Amino acid sequence: MSDSLDRLYQAVLAARDLDPATSRTARLFRQGPDKMAKKLAEEAIEVVIDAVAGKRDAVIRESADLLYNLTVLWAGAGVRPEQVWAEMTRRERMMGIAEKLPKSPKVAKSRSGNRRPIDALEDRIRKLG
Ligand SMILES: N=c1c2ncn([C@@H]3O[C@H](COP(=O)(O)OP(=O)(O)OP(=O)(O)O)[C@@H](O)[C@H]3O)c2ncn1[C@@H]1O[C@H](COP(=O)(O)O)[C@@H](O)[C@H]1O
């Protein structure tokens, strides 16, 4: 899958400076990050609605639209796909290590309540050295 997204990302970069009248991607870049974010959110909602409705084929189509709009947003935000793959690999490794760790009491959320389990796990692994 990452190969497809890598190719799409390169295509999005290539379309960035095309004529917005004929290129949706160029138009999105011209409209800026707020529009990119709006389109991505809209696509995510369309995937959700179709999934809840059990429309499998629509979920497939809308998921492709979602991934397209995600790569456009990445490009607009200066995020490269390999940075996302690296983060996913990091988490995969941590989860792999986690399976071998002794079970620990559920990590209490910090007062702000926004502690992500993956970050708490990373702290545990770091403390174990
Ligand atoms: N992969 C895609 C791709 N996936 C989805 N889309 C478009 O994104 C839209 C997502 O659905 P929406 O319901 O949001 O679109 P819509 O119904 O037309 O409504 P609006 O977005 O116009 O409001 C669809 O119109 C699709 O045509 C894409 N548009 C372009 N690409 C690729 O991006 C590259 C650049 O293409 P251009 O943007 O055409 O230069 C090429 O490699 C293309 O294949």
UniProtKB/TrEMBL annotation:
Gene3D superfamilies reported for this sequence: MazG-like
EC class name: hydrolase
Biased composition (Basic and acidic residues): 116-129
Keywords: Amino-acid biosynthesis, ATP-binding, Cytoplasm, Histidine biosynthesis, Hydrolase, Nucleotide-binding
Listed pathway(s): Amino-acid biosynthesis; L-histidine biosynthesis; L-histidine from 5-phospho-alpha-D-ribose 1-diphosphate: step 2/9
GO molecular function: phosphoribosyl-ATP diphosphatase activity
Localization per record: Cytoplasm
Region of interest called Disordered, as start-end residue ranges on this chain: 98-129
Enzyme Commission number(s): 3.6.1.31
Reactions this protein catalyses: 1-(5-phospho-beta-D-ribosyl)-ATP + H2O = 1-(5-phospho-beta-D-ribosyl)-5'-AMP + diphosphate + H(+)
Family: Belongs to the PRA-PH family.
PANTHER family: HISTIDINE BIOSYNTHESIS BIFUNCTIONAL PROTEIN, HISTIDINE BIOSYNTHESIS BIFUNCTIONAL PROTEIN HIS7
Name of the protein this chain belongs to: Phosphoribosyl-ATP pyrophosphatase
Gene symbol of the encoding locus: hisE
